[in-house]
Design a protein that fits this description.
Number of strands: 10
Number of helices: 15
Structural class: alpha/beta
Distance between the termini: 69 Å
Largest sheet: 5 strands, mixed
Number of domains: 2
Radius of gyration: 28 Å
Strand content: 15-25%
CATH topology of the largest domain: D-Maltodextrin-Binding Protein, domain 2
CATH superfamily of the largest domain: Periplasmic binding protein-like II
Strand order of the largest sheet: 2-1-3-10-4
CATH architecture of the largest domain: 3-Layer(aba) Sandwich
């Protein structure tokens, strides 16, 4: 006959075996559920940019090619826009999640539209000024014609501010003409004599010199006078409120891709050669020129934001009635979180 103690030992053993079988079944069910569900799907992101071809866009290329976006659970589609107005319209309509052209976004925010810049991938632009060979200095542009793409553009502001900060009055001492076209067309206008000088982006100085033109102000020289970061990340207020974690992950991917670009010389050289269509020696020269202008910190000092604000407002006939507050155009809180 079993004693009470023996019965309890046997009963406890039975309960233990039952619980063990239950736990195994629960674990098997959980495992099967995970297998059926499959891996977590990356979130589709539409990012508007101006297209490949400039040193300022390389961090986006690196983030895609090297999987930095994917590691953050993002599947980023880079959508090329040839017009900033179209990009802004798509952003406001929710067809784009993010846009990259900082001067235009800053101007839109200054006009009261519900957008903010949340990061800057570069610290400056690579604008430079070229002229006909007989013009030897910026001051020699007095009475001449300076061609830009369009009024109110970042190139327009770069030309206007560079001339002004070199001691000339851009409204009286020379004529700034909107001649449209890209780099090739504007260089052709200088060669033909339609204008005496123009503002283009590096590495167009190589093409300009081959055509007998003078580099009147290098990208480094112009960058000391005018600092206009062209590329970064901008979003609507609605997006910032709805998906703050996604924004941090996007910025973290861009920060890591920028650091990768700076630290991996073999990959960087091949990328510069491929994207900018230059040889290895020129790629290294260009990288030395741009190296300090990449911005893994993602934020900008107030003085540069002031220049961005000026790009969007300096041509307006009616200036904004309220004071332009930097808090109304930029929000660095996401960038600060991305660096942690």
């Amino acid at each position: 006959m079993l004693t009470v103690r023996a019965f309890n030992v046997i009963f406890d053993g039975i309960i233990e075996r039952v619980l063990l079988q239950v736990n195994k079944r629960i674990g098997l069910v959980f495992l099967l559920a995970c297998l059926v569900a499959g891996p977590v799907q990356a979130k589709d992101i539409n990012l508007g940019w101006s297209g490949i071809g400039s040193w300022t866009t390389l961090p986006y290329v690196v983030a895609n090619e090297k999987g930095f976006f994917e590691k953050e659970g993002l599947k980023v589609q880079l959508i090329t826009f040839r017009g900033t107005n179209l990009m802004l319209t798509a952003l406001l309509a929710g067809e784009l999640d993010y846009a990259t052209i900082l001067p235009f976004l800053t101007g839109a925010a200054a006009r009261g539209l519900p957008v903010r810049i949340v990061a800057a991938v570069t610290k400056s632009s690579s604008y430079l000024m070229v002229s006909r060979p007989e013009i030897e200095s910026v001051k020699a542009l007095r009475g001449k014609k300076l061609g830009i793409n369009s009024f109110g553009s970042s190139a327009d502001f770069a030309a206007y501010a560079a001339v002004n900060r070199s001691g000339l009055d851009p409204t009286k001492d020379l004529t700034i003409l909107p001649i449209g076209g890209g780099t090739t067309e504007r260089l052709a206008s200088v060669v033909s004599g339609s204008v005496d000088a123009t503002v283009v982006t590096s590495p167009a100085e190589y093409a300009a010199e081959k055509q007998g033109l003078r580099v009147l102000m290098t990208a480094q020289e112009l960058g000391k006078l005018v600092r206009i970061p062209i590329t970064g990340i901008g979003a609507t207020l609605k997006k910032m409120e709805k998906d703050p974690d996604e924004i941090v992950r996007l910025l973290r991917a861009l920060r890591l891709s920028t650091l990768y670009l700076l630290q991996n010389s073999e990959y960087r050289s091949a990328l510069f050669q491929r994207v900018m269509r230059v040889d290895a020696a020129t790629a290294e020269t260009l990288f030395k020129l741009y190296r300090e202008q990449y911005n893994p910190e993602l934020t900008l000092p107030d003085s540069i934001v002031d220049d961005l604000l000026a790009v969007g407002t300096f041509r307006l006939k009616e200036k904004p009635k309220s004071a332009l507050n930097q808090q109304n155009v930029r929000d660095w809180s996401f960038a600060e979180k991305a660096k942690r």
